[in-house]
Request: fold
Amino acid sequence: MNNRLPPAWSKHLKAPSGPRISQSKTGPSKATPLSHTQADDALLRQALDLYRAGRLLEAEELCQRVLAHSPRHPLALYLLGTFALGLDDEMAIRCFERAVKEAPQNAQYHFMLGETYLKVGEHSDAIEQLELASELKADWAEVLCALGRAYTEFGRADIALPFYKKALKIDDRYPLVRMGLANALVSFGRMDEAAQYMKQAVGHRQDIGAAYNGLVSIRKFTEEPAELRSILLEIDNPELDEKSIQRLHYAAAKVLNDLRRHEEAMDHLQRAKALSPHRFSIDEYRRSVDFMIELFSPEMLAARAGYGSASEVPVFVLGMPRSGTTLTEQICASHPDVHGAGELTKLRRIMNRLAPRTRSPDELRQSILEMTADQSRSLADEYLGHIRQRSPNSLRVVDKLPHNFELVGLIRLLFPKARIVHCRRDAVDNCISCYFLNFNDHNTYNADLGSLGRYYREYDRLMRHWQSVFPGEILENRYEDMVSDQEGQSRRLIDHLGLPWDDACLRFFDKGGSVNTFSRWQVRQPIYTSSMNRWKNYGSTIRPLIEALGDLAGS
Reply:
């Protein structure tokens, strides 16, 4: 959705207008003055042209000029919000909210507000706005698919399915509908049905890269499938864009790795990573880790005893991606008193709001150091309200966003009694498993093996700090221990949550409900050992990772 103007937006502008200059034999006459509406429309058209030319600051300045004399102009607010997407999503939300308030019958404004809420993880608000958009324009396949995605991510794939099926009836050529329907079915564990829709997407030439990538991700291959030849042919298709080609390389790597053709798999991964437009700055990330370690010192936290909420409802399962966080959540959520809420971004949004003007470390430090006990309780209540939308009555609600390992200091400031589970795995196995995945643009450390290893060292350094600041408060849950002693480690996990044991936790793979992470296929299976010591299959191809990890390799 970043930097995207929906095609429908332009109908809100009138036809091009400008000074009407009549020509005579003696020369031009004076220009006819424009009305405010005509002048505003002209400025907004110019803003759009500048935006399309990549001149974002100039485009924004023109919108601000319109708002300076017409502060409630809905289209100016809408365009300003659209320009902010991907750069400042909180600002985009504020602009879209104001546009919706001024033009409540505009389905496009509700749709974009809902899409942006969905992007930042505010699923209830997203659903409300998308349903309003759907009521205003009932035959809009795009908004029906957005509703399907919102409900799927909210853990209600059962509600999502009818929206996708309705969209399919309205417009079976809409490119996102079959893959959205397939993803909802996968999250629900209905793999065979999902595969049929993915194959249909391939047949209709709809989102080829995502379709093949999804198709090969929901099963493990022991023999070469027909899909591999098709994927390899598509990679050389000059009509496909780079993103589709990248996804096809990931799909080829997945199949080849299953077939134990490891060097070929790594070759496709490296070709996929080369298509990533972003590069990771280890120096910048080290500075952010230094900042967290310096800010959340034992002395600083001791001075804020009594801050936050006394609630024991939140459980934070965190660590590196692919370290066993989904498995851990599923074991916990199999307990009748625990709800697994998936990967929530709410805590990150709260942190970002503490430095709204500059997002700088200095502003964040000042906000946290000046935070009062009342303010900390207010923020904690906001987070509790967010997770209670998912499960009003559970004794524990699990937030398993792996990268919350960066925010343990804030977690403890807001929730001194919250349970924290840190998932660990053999460092090389963990990194290799990450490398096989197509992470989003925020996790650019995954773009090459050296960056991945250096990032892992910083993650390890920060977690060692949290363990020293909060001794005995963070349960370390090792993937290898869980595999070798499922019942013993599961009992240890449930005990850490302060709950009585329940045998349902041993059959986590039978649990209903939806799962919306990269591990959603594996988590439907009993615990298996094939992922242990996986790194030994790759030989010299992973030398940059081993060298970057240093003494952590094999830890």
Observations:
- Residues 1-33 have pLDDT under 50 and may be disordered.
- The domain at 1-19+31-138 is CATH 1.25.40.10 (Serine Threonine Protein Phosphatase 5, Tetratricopeptide repeat).
